[in-house]
Automatic annotation (TrEMBL):
It comes from Parabacteroides acidifaciens. Keywords: Signal. GO terms for biological process: proteolysis. NCBIfam families: T9SS_sortase. CDD domains: Peptidase_C25_N (cd02258). GO terms for molecular function: cysteine-type peptidase activity. InterPro entries: Caspase-like_dom_sf, Gingipain, Gingipain_N_sf. The gene is porU. This is Type IX secretion system sortase PorU.
Length: 1129
């Protein structure tokens, strides 16, 4: 018992130690009450607020006015260091007319490794403070008494200057920006004025970048014609290294003048990205009150009681000790003529002072009044959504969906409010992290721990909008990104994980080995329209109304590789390993393998592509997939060098069953770039594309992709404590799994979640079990499926506990596959001595549907004559949906073999009946006119069943146009049974573009006994043929809140331009909407409208005319008009 108690105490202690003390945070923010005005400062300095300034702000009592905050230095990324919570009150200096305060700008200086070094805030060009009027007197500076017994007289001080212009990103990645170019101008001269500089030894530092190609390059820096620094750039051929850096520091010992000339020379032409990062000078100066304020410090004073003697002072001159920026002190000074002095005791700390001429001090800039806020008082939240005010309404819609549908506590927060309480009002990505850490530290158990963070906005590598590319971009709806300091090579990342490193021990070093504590996702949205459509998609997915067998289907897409990349077969090996893992461990899913090298490569006419891969992928997407997993080459605009998927394709996607995508490829979703990437397009497609992506934002490497992809797949499909993981859990646990995997953990930084981290994939949750086949127990000996044998399968739907779901009433959809075969790839690129082999189930014996009653189902089919006769195991996948509740189930069965022939085979000798055949619509007649991409439809019936096995040459369902092999199409996979019509099915196929003129087509179809039927028909292709707008209906009508226009036409699956215009009876246009899209054979094209005009005002009640217009490529417009009644609200 004692051992058990000790173990429990130890475990509790370990859990408690993982969460820091939540009491470190204020229970209420100081901003929660009172009047507050935000001010900004551009640099470290002393700033003045006069009575007149304060009255303009709305304050009247100078004595009670207070300044809060800590300015613009970047927040410390090391969470083991001391942290200032909320907004501290700054000690200020006051007299009867004004106050003075020490303000920190966006550039931080510190002494490290014998040099003064600077850090620019990568998120802001200003530092911020807050002014308020208290009920009591505001805090003022304490006066530091001058010490006795000085052993050191200080008449000079250590100073520094830097030229660091942040204007260009050479990699569109990383936090470092660069300055002057030396590509066409190889040398540049700079002059800086340093009043009071002495001849004491100083230092010079140069940071310079270049990409040396062809030969080496070198850079020199001279100060007053004395060369101090020389650096060499060695030739690089690495395509991912855009430049390397020379960073050198040298002693500056020569005599010095107040005007200092700096010459920087690069010695080689033709190199790229040759730029100055910065140069920095460190020197000593005479201690004097030079300007309105002069900062000073002395390295010599460390360990010595020291007397500072300042020249150029008068009776009004002040000296502040600003070593502690929140608690500055006024130094007690002695004035003798124009010489001001004070003494400090011995200390090893380097202290920072400023001498001030109050009459010359300027006021800070006023930003404006800040509304009361109180993030510190928030209760624990499951999910935080950070969204700019312009997108807050849509973020709130999503938050409410999670509250009502998932029982989560969710808070939508504006980034500005986070900055105000967690980074002194200064934009800083670490403020997001600090905010999340507050919830993490306050948790008392895992139940009230923060779980998800959604960044509801796009981001940029240029957070400050300093580069020409971003300077004029509207970033008002965007959020900050965390960019790594490395900015010149493939290890430069944008890292959303950063916001989830919440342990005290999480410092800024080696973030790759850190474990993220929450699930993080991002919506890369910039506009209200994008936000609205993204939230619509997610809520629709959560509602889970798009039921269907597609949720059983997965697709693994693998590039063919090449000799050049050194991974000729590795993409396929990696994909096949994961596909086979799912086939074994999760056989309820049906894996579709699309490996490039298994298909013929088209190299004709300068082409280099896989048209069959493109066709098959788009067919699978149209039918529906739960997951698409791609491994291979890629970029921001396409998947693979062969461009099997492009941004143009994505823009034209209209399928409604949305998969999650895993893209183990380079740069596919580089969301922080100015141009919208292909991965973003998948997510942003308003009605199609993808529901989420586990995707890459930077370069990815094949060996490391294998680890990352493997963990993603396992976390996606393996349950944890009997429950499916959310998308946020999947990405979080994957990153944590890889944190300690050396040589791979840094590459996990290149993967992120584009999507909602609190959302789950719509896996069917019930399980299906086959209980018997032809009366034989399903779990006994393997049951033979013989050619032409009638098979009856019986089974049941079970819940998670294994109990029969007796109230499950609906439809079952079985898919029965022939036995596994070995597929030998074609070695298209001649990269290996032997081609890659993999196993697959390419041949289908049966696809059907039947009823489920009270949790039990049965279906019957006849095994086709065209089977493998292998005697090996086949595969059966099952899906079912409850017609009332929408609950879904899935399962599998493989205890059967395929081989032999039935002794009681049917003697049917009649081929399938083609009951209906047309192009585009049922009004088609033989010889009729059609567009260049007509839609082929045929309804079939056969008592034995239609043959779609694909296992026998010459027995495929085929459409052959003009007898041409190039215009011959295998339609096996386009055939579907018609529900409730035994033996009946339909084939639908969008014919690729045809030349104008007359064409003759033959349609061949076979039954499972290999009886055939052929139908010949002719048609005329007319380029630009106007579509037929059959009808348009507005529902509801009359309309009160919203109306949807349903357009029926004769161009299924064709991309159309659709327009809706609404007029009053006088012909005045009130609303116009245009978009492009497609609809399928059985659904109208729908456009919704909220009854508001172009300015957002709701239309008055009355009668209006709406006109619908449709057209296709190069066609004339088809239009029709009807009346719409709008009611009052």
């Amino acid at each position: 018992m004692k051992r058990i108690l000790y173990t429990l105490l130890l475990v509790f202690g370990l859990l408690a130690s993982a969460w820091a003390d939540g009491s470190r945070y204020a229970s209420q923010s100081v901003l929660s009450s009172g009047k507050w005005v935000k001010i900004q400062v551009a640099e470290d300095g002393i700033y003045k607020l006069t009575l007149a300034d304060l009255k303009k702000m709305g304050f009247s009592n100078l004595d009670k006015v207070a300044v809060y905050g800590y300015g613009g230095w970047p927040l410390n990324e090391d969470f083991s260091k001391t942290y200032v919570d909320d907004l501290p009150e700054v000690a200020v200096w006051k007299n009867a007319d004004y106050l003075l305060f020490y303000g920190k700008g966006p550039r931080k200086w510190e002494y490290a490794s014998s040099s003064f070094v600077h850090t620019n805030n990568p998120y802001s060009n200003y530092g911020y403070y807050f002014v308020t009027e208290k009920e009591t007197a505001g805090r003022t500076m304490e006066k530091a008494t001058s010490a006795d017994g000085a052993t050191l007289q200080v008449t000079t001080f250590d100073d520094y200057m830097v030229k660091d212009d942040d204007v260009v990103s050479v990699n569109n990645s990383g936090r470092e920006l660069y300055g002057d170019s030396f590509e066409s101008t190889l040398s540049r001269s700079y002059t800086v004025t340093i009043p009071g500089i002495t001849n004491d030894a100083g230092k010079a530092t140069l940071s310079f970048i270049a990409r040396a190609s062809g030969n080496t390059g070198s850079v020199t820096m001279s100060v007053d014609n004395n060369q101090l620094i020389s650096g060499t750039f060695y030739r690089t051929s690495d395509e991912y290294v855009v430049a390397t850096e020379v960073y050198e520091t040298a002693n500056w010992t020569a005599d010095k003048n107040e005007k200092v000339n700096i010459d920087i020379q690069y010695n080689t032409t033709g190199h790229k990205n040759v730029r100055l990062n910065f140069f920095r000078l460190q020197m000593k100066r005479q201690l004097k009150a030079y300007d309105a304020y002069t900062f000073f410090r002395s390295l010599a004073t460390r360990g010595n009681a020291s007397r500072f003697i300042i020249q150029g002072a008068d009776a009004n001159t002040l000296v502040f000790d600003v070593t502690d920026g929140i608690n500055p002190q006024q130094m007690e000074t002695t004035l003798s003529g124009t010489e001001l002095s004070f003494t400090i005791p011995a200390s090893m700390d380097l202290r920072e002072f400023v001498v001030v001429k109050p009459s010359q001090i300027k006021a800070p800039e006023t930003v404006g009044e800040v509304a009361n806020q109180n993030l510190h008082a928030l209760a624990q939240q499951d999910m935080i959504i950070i969204a700019q005010p312009g997108l807050a309404a849509q973020a709130e819609r999503l938050a409410e969906a999670h509250r009502t549908k998932d029982n989560l506590t969710v808070q939508v927060v504006a980034p500005e409010t986070i900055y105000n309480e967690f980074s002194s009002g200064t934009p800083d990505a670490t403020a997001y992290r600090r905010f999340m850490k507050m919830f993490y530290d306050r948790q008392t158990s895992e139940a009230d721990a923060p779980k998800y963070l959604l960044l509801f906005g796009d981001g940029s590598y240029d957070n400050r909008q300093l580069t020409s590319a971003w300077k004029s971009v509207d970033m008002s709806n965007m959020l900050l990104t965390y960019q790594t300091k490395e900015s010149l090579n493939q290890f430069s990342y944008v890292v959303d994980d950063y916001f989830g490193f919440l342990d005290d021990a999480d410092n800024k070093e080696d973030i790759a080995s850190k474990k993220v504590n929450i699930g993080i996702g991002r919506f890369p949205i910039r506009t209200v329209d994008q936000a609205t459509k993204a939230v619509d998609k997610v809520i629709s997915y959560i509602d889970n109304k798009e039921t269907g067998v597609w949720k059983n289907n997965l697709c693994f897409l693998a590039d063919d590789g090449s000799n050049a990349d050194g991974f000729a077969q590795y993409h396929m090996v990696q994909a096949d390993t994961l596909a086979d893992y799912l086939a074994v461990d999760h056989p309820e899913f049906l894996v579709n393998k699309l490996y490039f090298d298994a298909y013929k490569k088209d190299v004709t006419g300068g082409q280099n592509g896989y048209p069959d891969i493109r066709t098959n992928l788009q067919k699978l997407l149209k039918d529906g997939l739960l997951l698409v997993n791609y491994t291979g080459h890629g970029g921001t605009t396409a998947l693979s060098d062969e461009k099997v998927l492009t941004q143009t394709d994505i823009a034209q996607f209209t399928y409604s069953n949305l998969p999650v995508w895993i893209t183990a490829t380079c740069d596919f979703t580089r969301f922080d770039d100015l141009a919208t990437s292909a991965g973003e397009d998948l997510f942003l497609n308003a009605k199609s594309g993808g529901i989420a992506l586990f995707t890459t934002v930077r370069v990815a490497y094949v060996p490391h992709n294998a680890y990352i992809n493997s963990r993603l797949i396992r976390n996606m499909f393996e349950k944890k404590n009997g429950r499916r993981r959310t998308l946020g859990d999947i990405i979080k646990e994957t990153k944590c799994d890889l944190a300690n995997v050396s040589n791979t953990n840094r590459y996990k930084l290149g993967f992120c979640l584009i999507g909602d981290p609190a959302m789950k994939l719509n896996y069917p949750e019930y399980r299906m079990q086959v209980t018997s086949v032809n009366g034989k127990t399903a779990d006994g000996e393997a049951i033979p499926f013989r050619a032409l044998e009638k098979i009856t399968v019986e089974g049941q739907v079970l819940d998670a506990s294994g109990a029969l779901v007796t109230d499950f009433i609906g439809v079952v959809n079985p898919t029965v596959k022939d036995s596994k075969v070995t597929v030998t790839c074609l070695n298209n690129n001649k990269t290996e001595d032997s081609p890659f082999n993999f196993t697959d189930y390419p041949n289908t014996l049966f696809i059907g549907n039947d009823s489920v009653r009270n949790g039990k189902f049965s279906f019957t089919f006849t095994v086709p004559k065209d089977i493998s006769y292998s005697g090996l195991q086949g595969k059966m996948n099952l899906y079912a949906v409850d017609s009332e509740s929408g609950n879904e189930a899935q399962g599998n069965f493989d205890n059967f073999t395929v081989g032999g022939t039935s002794e009681t085979a049917d003697t049917d000798t009649i081929g399938p009946e083609i009951r209906l055949l047309y192009l585009n619509d049922t009004a088609f007649v033989d010889g009729g006119k059609v567009n260049t991409t007509p839609y082929f439809v045929a309804e079939l019936w056969d008592k034995s069943g239609v043959n779609i096995t694909g296992s026998s040459v010459g027995h495929d369902m085929m459409l052959v146009i003009d007898g041409s092999p190039l215009l011959s199409y295998n339609l096996n996979s386009y055939y579907n049974l018609l529900s409730g019509k035994e033996g009946a099915g339909i084939v639908q196929f969008s014919i690729p573009a045809l030349e104008p003129g007359m064409h003759t087509a033959e349609f061949w179809v076979w039954d499972i006994l290999n009886n055939s039927t052929v139908r010949t028909f002719t048609f005329e292709v007319v380029e630009g043929l106007k579509p037929n707008l059959v009808d348009v209906v507005a529902t509801p009508s009359p309309a009160r809140g919203q109306v949807t226009f349903h357009i029926t036409h004769n161009r299924p699956e064709s991309r159309m331009r659709v327009g809706i215009m609404v007029y009053d009876l006088a012909g005045r246009l009130y609303w116009k909407h245009e978009e492009s899209g497609t609809s399928d054979l059985f659904s109208a094209y729908s456009v919704s409208w909220d009854l508001t005009d172009g300015a957002g005002a709701r239309l008055r009640p009355g009668v209006y005319i709406y006109r619908a217009a449709i057209s296709t490529n190069n066609s004339k417009e088809a239009t029709t008009a009807k009346k719409l009644i709008i009611l009052g609200e």
